[in-house]
Design a protein that fits this description.
The structure is a single chain. By secondary structure, this protein is an alpha/beta fold. Helices cover 32% and strands 27% of the residues. The protein has 2 domains: 10-130, Rossmann fold; 138-226, no CATH class. Strands 1, 2, 3, 4, 5 and 6 form a 6-stranded mixed beta sheet that branches. A hairpin with a 2-residue loop joins strand 9 and strand 10 (219-226). The radius of gyration is 17 Å and the shape is globular.
């Protein structure tokens, strides 16, 4: 792992609690291009869970401890109008700026509209975006993650794209081989979201037990609990 070069820009990482953000952190630390000084996560204030992923806040805290970085939680209402979301993120970025942060990193892979949105909002706020995984071929990337030691479970599944029986399962080579045609192996189109319990750069695993699976707002969520 390469240390950040002297004078490297300070960055915060948009942390979803899933595999892509965890692997983006690994790549940033390995390259040394930026000094990642913190994580940024939106949390649903109504549920005390990571937005969209549905991960318990306690598990999010344990992840931050495991990677050794401070975590900034941006609490948003449910449902959350886009204006409210953007105002909350703007305030979080202003706080980061006061701490010397100039870059914001993301685990996005190929969705051009999402990237363009992020770039536009960050340009308005005076920050530089960083996309360490951008353009990687996702089938190979998913296998690379598993081989590198990423341990993750599917915590949210879109049943319109992937069977609900996948919810709660561990991301393995076997699971990747079972994904139906048309499902992105990294779930980049929202087919599924994950919770990472271990990955390169974790000081210790974050063990979980698998709880109840429920359907809410058209998505299937598996409740992961601290082990």
């Amino acid at each position: 792992m390469a240390p950040a070069a002297q004078g490297s820009p300070k960055a915060i990482l948009s942390w979803s609690s899933g595999k892509d953000s965890a692997y983006a952190l690994h790549e940033l630390r390995r390259s040394g291009a930026c000094e990642v000084v913190g994580l940024l996560t939106t949390v649903s204030a109504a549920f005390d869970r990571v937005s969209m992923h549905g991960v318990r806040e306690e598990l999010l805290d344990r992840q931050a401890e495991a990677v050794g970085l401070p975590l900034k939680k941006v609490r948003i209402p449910y449902p959350c109008p886009n204006r409210v979301y953007e105002d909350a993120m703007r305030a979080a970025l202003e706080e980061a700026r006061r701490q010397g942060v100039t870059h914001v990193a993301f685990g996005d892979l190929f969705l051009e509209d999402i990237r363009a949105y992020r770039e536009a909002r960050l340009a308005e706020a005076g920050f530089q975006p960083v996309f360490p995984l951008w353009g990687r071929e996702t089938a190979g990337l998913a296998r690379e993650m598993v081989h590198a030691g990423v341990r993750a479970r599917l915590c949210c599944v879109d049943p319109r794209k992937l069977g609900r029986e996948f919810a709660g399962r561990e991301l393995t080579a076997e699971l990747l081989a079972e994904l139906p045609a048309g499902v992105d192996p990294c779930g980049e189109r929202g087919e599924f979201h994950t919770f990472v319990s271990d990955a390169p750069g974790f000081r210790r695993p974050v063990p979980v037990t698998v709880g109840e699976t429920v359907e809410r707002d058209g998505f299937v969520f598996t409740d992961l609990r601290p082990a």
